[in-house]
């Protein structure tokens, strides 16, 4: 495997985190970046494993120092970003690295690291995306509405990516993603 960076993005509730968790559990050779966020942890999320949960002031300081490879305000509320140092260290070691981020972040990474591979994770249908968002039960009705409005624009960005993976089945989508990371011609 090469040390090429792969960026996984797609609309809200498409299963980016679930696919990344499958890769983490089944492919220890793939390093997965842990993003920083100002949002509170959801039930079951662990600081330093799922995200680095930080205060807004801490996040702002990281952004000001240039410690973030990318960052964005997501769904008009919380900030998310990728700490730069760990990504650069892993790539220098020649390991495959995966960023699971939102569309805004993917665009920033493309501007600074165009040699990365950009993978769009797509739902099998709009209704399935709605079902997944409602089914996880972690957002209020107002938040779900905001996320679905954002998802329309996110889905329209598919053409900006190098390849699309449809997340019909988590294991299949994750294995397809890892296959793209392993294949130097992809």
Molecular shape: globular
Instruction: Please tell me the CATH architecture by its name.
Output: 3-Layer(aba) Sandwich
Overall pLDDT score: 91
Strand content: 15-25%
CATH third-tier fold name: Rossmann fold
CATH superfamily: P-loop containing nucleotide triphosphate hydrolases
Uncertain stretches = none
User: What is the terminal-to-terminal distance?
Assistant: 12 Å
Rg calculated over all Cα atoms:
16 Å
CATH class: Alpha Beta
Largest sheet: 5 strands, parallel
Percentage of residues in helical conformation: 40-55%
SSE order: EHEEEHEEHEHEHHEH
The figure for the number of domains is 1
Structural class by SSE content: alpha/beta
Largest sheet: spatial strand order: 2-7-1-8-9
E-strand count: 9
Number of helices: 7
Please explain how this structure is put together.
- With 186 residues, this protein is an alpha/beta fold.
- It has 7 helices and 9 strands.
- The longest helix has 16 residues, at 141-156.
What is the topology?
Layout: E1 5-9, H1 16-26, E2 31-32, E3 36-37, E4 52-53, H2 56-65, E5 68-74, E6 78-83, H3 84-92, E7 97-100, H4 103-112, E8 117-122, H5 126-136, H6 141-156, E9 163-166, H7 170-182
Parallel strand pairs: 1-7, 1-8, 2-7, 3-4, 8-9
Antiparallel strand pairs: 3-6, 5-6
State the main characteristics.
Rossmann fold; five-stranded parallel β-sheet; 7 helices; four-stranded mixed β-sheet; alpha/beta; 186 residues; 9 strands; 20% strand
């Amino acid at each position: 495997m090469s040390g090429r960076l792969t960026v996984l993005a797609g609309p809200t509730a498409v299963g980016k985190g679930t696919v990344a968790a499958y890769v983490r559990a089944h492919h220890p050779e793939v390093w997965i970046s842990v993003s920083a966020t100002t949002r509170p942890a959801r039930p079951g999320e662990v600081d330093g494993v799922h995200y680095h949960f930080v205060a807004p002031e801490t996040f702002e300081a990281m952004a000001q120092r240039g410690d973030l490879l990318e960052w964005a305000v997501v769904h008009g509320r919380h900030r998310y970003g990728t700490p730069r140092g760990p990504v650069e260290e892993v790539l220098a070691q020649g390991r495959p690295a995966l960023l699971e981020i939102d569309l805004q972040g993917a665009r920033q990474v493309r501007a600074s690291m165009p040699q990365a591979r950009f993978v769009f994770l797509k739902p099998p249908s709009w209704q399935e995306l709605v079902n997944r968002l409602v089914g996880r039960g972690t957002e209020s009705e107002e938040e779900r509405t905001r996320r679905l409005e954002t998802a329309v624009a996110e889905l329209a960005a598919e053409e900006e990516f190098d390849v699309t993976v449809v997340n019909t089945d988590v294991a299949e989508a994750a294995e397809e993603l890892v296959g793209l990371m392993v294949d130097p011609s992809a």
